[in-house]
Amino acid sequence: MNNVYKFIAKAVRAGSKSIGKKGTDLPGKVLRKINSNVLKDLTKDFDDIVFVTGTNGKTTTSNLIGHTLKTSGLEIVNNYEGANMLDGIISTFAIQSSKNTKIAIIEIDEGSIKKVMNYVTPTKFVFNNFFRDQIDRFGEIDTLIDTIGRQLEGKNIQLILNSDDPFVSRLSKYGKENIYFGISKNTYKFDNIGITESKFCPVCSSELNYDHIHYSQLGYYSCNNCDFKRHKVDYEVTSARVNPLITISINNNKEFTTSQLGDFNIYNILSAYTTLSVLGIDEDNIIRGLSSYTSNNGRMQIIRKKDSDVVSLLNLAKNPAGMNASLNIANSMDKNISINYLLVLNDNGADGFDISWIWDSDFSILESQNIKNIVCSGKRAKELALRLKYTNISANIYVDENIKNAVNKLKSFNEQYNIVIPNYTALVETQNELER
């Protein structure tokens, strides 16, 4: 029967792509009409199904794991295109799996966990972090974590948890033989990007005590009133440099350099390394895979203009923490180098209709950068421009809601470096226009 599903899924995908769509979700939607339990049927013979989630970094982490498993010679299922809701996950299993496929690495949208777990229970679940994101979809973070906890309860899933995030640590009571990862104190100095989300103990509501903060709520914390605290970690970053690529050592093992940019990717590399070790991949293969992965999905993706030195750095941002990290990228660049920005903001359903989060983002980060021009685009371009007005930025600011026109405007400046930051539904169109 699975061969029939595969045939249908591939045919529907081909038809969808022929009319200019991505074809990542429609096959799953069609298969679910045929059989409401199709995901349960497609996953029943897998040995390991690993879910990867979190507000930021789940796509990069999932792709790092998937790429490394493939370079290690394993046949896997991996939704590397980021189709992380129910229909996209069904499509991925239907199209990619065969009778020899026993491992699946699945990025999953936080809000889709309940729906997907009606049909499949993962053997392992990776949690990277939790930040405020799409409040009109997910609710407040406490509500989201409680919802996820109810799905994990009693399932005996091995949890792989970022111990530096107290929100993630709250889930530890639901897991079996949990594995923890984190960054050791004073290993790397992150720029302060603010937004301390988790101030109070989830057990007794007392104020948490931090004796070290990496950034936001990530760090070393404990409660003076009860035993809630950062768990002792199994995998730890013991050295890290960003110049601009990340060079890293984990558990004091040999250093390796990746193709990843942006210091927030230190956590994604660590999360992937930890998961791959738990899956039994030896260190040489892990390092080979993590070192060779390059992004082409809008997460710290480098796009070079043909026959030119112009470089555009494309990075998705859809919440305050992600935006602050993206705005901070240029702070590691030579201040004599001038740059341009393209900021793209939509408010479609998948983005969340509430864009008030841009006012929680710290655009003052830009004030110390050598910026020539900023182009605001997308359906809410005017709101972006208004937000920039409340900073001390001397750059020229342009507004064009049409993404194609905005990208062409950016290209016309012909500066050597562009930083392009779209939100979720703006990403693909922005990427396509940059690569055109």
From TrEMBL:
<feature type="binding site">
    <location>
        <position position="201"/>
    </location>
    <ligand>
        <name>Zn(2+)</name>
    </ligand>
</feature>
<keyword id="KW-0067">ATP-binding</keyword>
<comment type="subunit">
    <text>Forms a heterodimer with GatD.</text>
</comment>
<feature type="domain" description="Lipid II isoglutaminyl synthase (glutamine-hydrolyzing) subunit MurT C-terminal">
    <location>
        <begin position="316"/>
        <end position="427"/>
    </location>
</feature>
<keyword id="KW-0862">Zinc</keyword>
<dbReference type="InterPro" id="IPR013564">
    <property type="entry name" value="MurT_C"/>
</dbReference>
<feature type="domain" description="Mur ligase central">
    <location>
        <begin position="52"/>
        <end position="225"/>
    </location>
</feature>
<keyword id="KW-0133">Cell shape</keyword>
<keyword id="KW-0436">Ligase</keyword>
<feature type="binding site">
    <location>
        <position position="223"/>
    </location>
    <ligand>
        <name>Zn(2+)</name>
    </ligand>
</feature>
<dbReference type="InterPro" id="IPR043703">
    <property type="entry name" value="Lipid_II_synth_MurT"/>
</dbReference>
<protein>
    <recommendedName>
        <fullName>Lipid II isoglutaminyl synthase (glutamine-hydrolyzing) subunit MurT</fullName>
        <ecNumber>6.3.5.13</ecNumber>
    </recommendedName>
</protein>
<keyword id="KW-0547">Nucleotide-binding</keyword>
<comment type="function">
    <text>The lipid II isoglutaminyl synthase complex catalyzes the formation of alpha-D-isoglutamine in the cell wall lipid II stem peptide. The MurT subunit catalyzes the ATP-dependent amidation of D-glutamate residue of lipid II, converting it to an isoglutamine residue.</text>
</comment>
<dbReference type="Pfam" id="PF08353">
    <property type="entry name" value="MurT_C"/>
</dbReference>
<keyword id="KW-0479">Metal-binding</keyword>
<dbReference type="InterPro" id="IPR013221">
    <property type="entry name" value="Mur_ligase_cen"/>
</dbReference>
<feature type="active site">
    <location>
        <position position="354"/>
    </location>
</feature>
<keyword id="KW-0573">Peptidoglycan synthesis</keyword>
<comment type="similarity">
    <text>Belongs to the MurCDEF family. MurT subfamily.</text>
</comment>
<dbReference type="InterPro" id="IPR036565">
    <property type="entry name" value="Mur-like_cat_sf"/>
</dbReference>
<comment type="pathway">
    <text>Cell wall biogenesis; peptidoglycan biosynthesis.</text>
</comment>
<dbReference type="Pfam" id="PF08245">
    <property type="entry name" value="Mur_ligase_M"/>
</dbReference>
<keyword id="KW-0961">Cell wall biogenesis/degradation</keyword>
<feature type="binding site">
    <location>
        <position position="226"/>
    </location>
    <ligand>
        <name>Zn(2+)</name>
    </ligand>
</feature>
<feature type="binding site">
    <location>
        <position position="204"/>
    </location>
    <ligand>
        <name>Zn(2+)</name>
    </ligand>
</feature>
